[in-house]
Amino acid sequence: MDLFIQQVVSGFATGGIYACMALSVVMIYQAIHHLNFAQGEMAMFSTYIAWQLLAWGLPYWAVFPLVIAISFVGGFAVERIVFKPIENAPVLSHIVIFIALFAIFNSFAGFIWDFTIKAVPSPFGDGPLYPGAPIGTHQAGMIGVTMVVLVMLWAFFRFTRMGLAMRAAAANPDSARLVGVKVSMMTALGWGMASAIGAVAGVLIAPVVFLEPNMMLSILLYGFAGAVLGGLTSPAGAVLGGFLVGIIENLAGTYIPVIGGELKLPIALFLIVAVLLIKPAGLLGRRTVQRV
């Protein structure tokens, strides 16, 4: 029973990171109705910026909000410079751009900081939370920071005019334009917020997986799995799906001998395929009905 509790709590901690990635994926999907395959690389690049600032001697809790702000500006700029001119282009054009961004961020990170693995310090420490605790201090810190970020986002979208405008622009762009919402600007803000959320995930997971240009590839796959499981049309579903993926991954790796620690990643791919076959809209997603 102790092992089960330990794996559930540990899965909840990593699931918080997957939830952040899933939420960032869903935010961009709702804005442009495409999956951003470069989302993980953008988060990785932000994590390298955080590592560089830490190496220059800045304190962690000054670096953390600064990197979030830099990531927001970067995501906003990517949408304005790259995707705004092709917003009416075919789907294939967007996919090609996503793949290009993936390669650009990955290559530039390696070019600037080289491809060697780097250790990122944890501000929470590396020991157990308390003697006999099922999780360590860093895992507890990940849970705490993730929950604070998610609550702040929920409050932003629920109680602020800007958040309501972004929700309206994502749900029904034409109607939002009729009531004066600048849909194009809301899309750019969504990109910025998605990039900032991805940066949170990257900075928090880096002390666990170590920092290198390919560190976010598996995290992005888990984020995709969480988004699909919860529903690509539901931010709340994406968060729920991310936490569920983290718990399922840990329990499967512990209790299914065939999977172990080496085959955890295919679980994410299996979940994506299974959900698309059984419930394409996801747990909390809404079905899209079109007249033909």
TrEMBL record:
The Swiss-Prot or TrEMBL record annotates one GO molecular function as: transmembrane transporter activity
Using the record, list the residue span of the signal peptide; answer none if the entry has no such feature: none
What Pfam families does the annotation carry?
BPD_transp_2
Keywords for this protein: Amino-acid transport, Cell membrane, Membrane, Transmembrane, Transmembrane helix, Transport
Instruction: Give the main localization category.
Output: membrane
State any GO BP term from the record: amino acid transport
Q: How does it sit in the membrane?
A: Multi-pass membrane protein
Q: Where, per UniProt, does this protein localize? A: Cell membrane
Segments spanning the bilayer are 12-32, 60-83, 95-115, 135-157, 188-209, 215-232, 239-259, 265-285
Q: Does the keyword Transmembrane helix apply?
A: yes
**Cellular component terms per the entry's GO annotation:** plasma membrane
Q: Does the keyword RNA-binding apply?
A: no
Q: What PANTHER family does UniProt report for this protein, alphabetically?
A: ABC TRANSPORTER PERMEASE PROTEIN, BRANCHED-CHAIN AMINO ACID TRANSPORT SYSTEM PERMEASE PROTEIN LIVH
What does the sequence similarity comment in the record state about its family? Belongs to the binding-protein-dependent transport system permease family. LivHM subfamily.
Q: What is this protein called?
A: Amino acid/amide ABC transporter membrane protein 1, HAAT family
Annotated organism of origin:
Albimonas donghaensis
